[in-house]
Design goal:
7-stranded parallel sheet, single chain, alpha/beta, 6-stranded parallel sheet, disordered C terminus, 15 helices, 39% helix
Length: 395
């Protein structure tokens, strides 16, 4: 019996930080998938053959003007995407569609409302933000929630936020992105006898990752431990700002920016480190984390965590067992936590072991895939709701 087919829609396949999506689409067991994308990035990092790049539609300026300014139609219509997507799904015999990211679901809403098969949308963090400059966006989100049979959230905190912005609780399913634990073996760590503590943070260099707080706490720590170092793996728009901050705090010679690393280099960095930092914070536009995958990978190797009471982090880090959790934007509290976690070799090792065991118990990849495919099963079982037909004259 052939496997059912899920179309995985991801506008950009894939940005460097989207490894968790790659793991999902390449590790399905009972379902086949192909990806629909508008743009391909990082093809060497994310090789994938079953990819449909959405072709650009030749512009008909008269029709575009009519749909956009006279009919006030959504972009999916006036950009000519609706019929293109429909043809791809029909040719590929898709049974359902998994749309990655809530804002993409809003963009595809006219199609989802008209397609005769189910679509589900997964939310990952930044996409739970409302858009005050787009007053219609909140309404469109609620329409999306009404239309799809299921909505997936990467963490319990995101699920709560989805309820707050109008998603019915009965439609929400937890969709943790699992970790391939065999790629992140446990490493036994010893307390450095000479005070050469090595801290690490792996993430995109963006405000919600709390990197300024990390830097300030590390600067306080280094006053007492002058041989300590801090490595930041990742890249992003804040890099220059963080380099300047490190210099201003007097730790420029102790902070290393490594950029994005492959799995082997990342594992080597984790093995050489003692503590993982991740003091995430909610930004002014309400951007928040799910459960950071880099944090889970580090924990799997036995790195204890110093982080914040933010988003889905407390769902993975148990305070005073697998790490320490402090309030957001509190560099003094983060420094105190660093002092506590490094005060004894026994403490460091016990916390590291408990961090690894917790990830292996709650975030193993094959179990996460089973739960994702169970959501696909459920969506297909709910496919009987009425749909309109895609208008034949939309191109």
């Amino acid at each position: 019996m052939p496997k059912p087919i899920v179309a995985s829609y991801c506008t950009t396949f894939l940005k460097p930080e989207m490894l968790h999506i790659y793991r999902q689409v390449t590790c399905l067991q009972r379902y086949e998938t192909f990806v629909i994308a508008k743009e391909r990035q990082c093809a060497e990092k994310y090789p994938f053959d079953a990819l449909e790049l959405q072709p650009r539609v030749a512009k008909n300026f008269v029709r575009r003007f009519y749909y956009k300014h006279v009919l006030k139609a959504p972009p999916l219509y006036y950009r000519g995407e609706l019929r293109v997507i429909h043809k791809i799904l029909e040719r590929r015999h898709a049974d359902l569609m998994h749309v990655y990211f809530g804002h993409t679901g809003v963009h595809l809403l006219p199609f989802i409302q008209n397609w005769d098969r189910p679509a589900i949308v997964s939310f990952h963090g930044a996409d739970v933000m409302l858009r005050p400059h787009q007053p219609e966006y909140a309404t469109q989100l609620r329409q999306l929630f009404e239309t799809v049979p299921l909505v997936l959230a990467r963490s319990v905190s995101l699920a709560r936020r989805l309820e707050e912005i109008g998603c019915p609780a009965e439609k929400i399913r937890l969709n943790r992105t699992g970790i391939p634990l065999e790629e992140f073996p446990f490493t036994h760590r010893l307390m450095p006898a000479d005070g050469e503590w090595r801290f690490v943070q792996t993430c995109r260099l963006i405000p919600k990752k709390g990197l300024k707080t990390s830097m300030e706490a590390f600067a306080l720590f280094r006053r007492k431990h002058p041989k300590a170092t801090f490595t930041i793996a990742g890249d992003g728009p804040m890099r220059s700002e963080l380099e300047r901050l490190a210099a201003e705090l007097g730790v420029g010679d102790a902070v290393t920016f490594r950029g994005f690393l492959n799995s082997s280099d990342l594992n080597a960095l984790y093995a050489q480190s003692h503590v993982f930092l991740h003091p995430s914070e909610i930004t002014e536009d309400a951007n928040q984390e799910g459960v950071p995958n880099a944090m889970l990978e580090a924990m799997a190797t036995g790195l204890p965590v110093v982080a914040t009471l933010h988003g889905g982090i407390p769902e993975a880090v148990e305070h005073e067992r697998s790490g320490f959790l402090v309030h957001e934007r509190d560099s003094a509290a983060l420094f105190t936590a660093l002092e506590q976690i490094t005060e004894s070799s026994e403490y460091l090792q016990i916390m590291g072991r408990q961090a690894s065991e917790g990830v292996r118990r709650e975030f193993e990849q094959s179990e996460a895939i089973k739960k994702l495919e169970a959501c696909y099963d459920e969506a297909l079982s709910l496919r009987g709701r009425p749909h309109a037909v895609v208008p034949a004259n939309q191109s």
